[in-house]
Amino acid sequence: MIPDRTGFIVWVSDLKAARSLERFGTVHYMSRKLHYVVLYMNAERVDESLRQMSRLSYVRKVERSYRTEIPTEYSKDSEDKTRFYSL
């Protein structure tokens, strides 16, 4: 059975130290330019992990990712207008 996963955006001040965030979950992406880490963790351990992460000196802010709430199934209610714009 696949566990429920929750995504988080962790804003950090030091990317070298941010590698240690792997102990909380799966690090999906690290932005070198904007200094953030996209992290996925099990939903059942979220409260405890957020408390421990916010205590770290290199973590500036932790935001929850709303990617799972975005609808990805679309319906085709209107007709296709692409054929009117082709040459």
Automatic annotation (TrEMBL):
It comes from the Bacteria. Keywords: Cytoplasm. This is DUF2129 domain-containing protein.
